[in-house]
Design brief:
The protein contains 4 helices and 3 strands. The chain is an alpha/beta fold. It has a 3-stranded parallel sheet, with helices on both faces. Helix 2 links the parallel strand 2 and strand 3.
Length: 136
């Protein structure tokens, strides 16, 4: 396997962060902080600083993507696309279309400050629900 710094582009697919929980039902649902662990975020940011990087995040739940959005060449919200379709989106082979089905908050502080029973109450989200795909 080659070194990232020798590549023209790196493609990385990750899952939205979550904290593993104990209990029969709890272990089947992703919950907890929406922040990536510090070591994972540092790894991804270092990669983005080394080579142009397309980052796809599987969003089975919201995630804090503020630092990744600033570091990545391309950031793609992924909802379960096959690898071939994902790569078609990265390389612009086919037009993509879609809208974000929920807010992506800018920080965990904004999430914690939001009222749980009020939709779209997150202060200054990174992307608001309904944000269109740039190629739609």
């Amino acid at each position: 396997m080659g070194r990232p710094e020798d590549a023209d582009l790196t493609v990385v697919r990750v899952h939205a962060p979550y904290e593993s929980r104990e209990g029969f039902l709890e272990r089947h649902f992703h919950a907890g902080s929406l922040d990536f662990p510090a070591t994972e975020l540092a790894r991804l940011r270092a990669l983005c600083a080394t080579v142009p990087t397309a980052v796809g995040v599987f969003l089975d739940r919201a995630a804090i993507l503020t630092e990744l959005a600033a570091a990545a060449t391309t950031l793609i919200a992924d909802f379960g696309a096959d690898d071939d379709l994902f790569l078609d989106a990265v390389f612009g082979m086919h037009p993509t279309a879609g809208t974000l089905p929920f807010d992506l908050p800018s920080s965990m502080t904004a999430v914690e400050d939001a009222r749980e029973d009020v939709p779209f109450d997150t202060r200054e989200p990174l992307f608001r629900c309904g944000h269109p795909s740039p190629r739609s």
